[in-house]
Amino acid sequence: MNATTAAAPALESLRDRWRAAWPDALALWSPFTRLRPPVWCLTEEDEQRAGLTGSFAMIRLVDQTVVISLRQIAAEGLDDHPLEILGHEIGHHILCPATSPTTPGCWRASAGRCRAWSTEPP
């Protein structure tokens, strides 16, 4: 049994918890927010197939698909933050499809619009 096989049940359980949080993450922005469910990556191969590089989460702007690396989320100890991470990615679709040079402007523009956030970035 390799490390990927041994980790699979834990990542599948994490996926189930995060999948259950998806509707609440959508509702952070609006009860009318509609996006397809995320692509859940459990392995590096999944991440490569989804085009996820350099991060543990993204939204593909070409097809509005949120992609989440649960492998990396678990490794970074972020298991208990699905609303924050999913809500952030949804925010790129709703308010601010941005790259890092425009992120500060997005924070100013979004201050107070998302009920889950304070007026300051973390």
Report on this model:
- With 122 residues, the protein is mainly alpha-helical.
- The protein has one domain (3-110).
- Helices cover 50% and strands 10% of the residues.
- The protein contains 5 helices and 3 strands.
- A 3-stranded mixed sheet has the order 1-3-2, with helices on both faces.
- It is globular.
- It starts with a helix and ends in a 12-residue tail after the last helix.
- The mean pLDDT is 83.
Strand order of the largest sheet: 1-3-2
Q: Label the structural class.
A: mainly alpha
Gross morphology: globular
Strand residue percentage: 5-15%
Distance between the termini: 39 Å
Average pLDDT, rounded to a whole number, is 83
Number of domains: 1
Number of helical segments with 4 or more residues: 5
Keywords:
50% helix; mainly alpha; 122 residues; 5 helices; globular; single chain
Provide a brief overview of the structure.
By secondary structure, the chain is mainly alpha-helical. The protein contains 5 helices and 3 strands.
Topology readout:
Blueprint: H1 3-29, E1 39-41, H2 44-50, E2 57-60, E3 65-69, H3 70-75, H4 82-94, H5 103-110
Parallel strand pairs: 1-3
Antiparallel strand pairs: 2-3
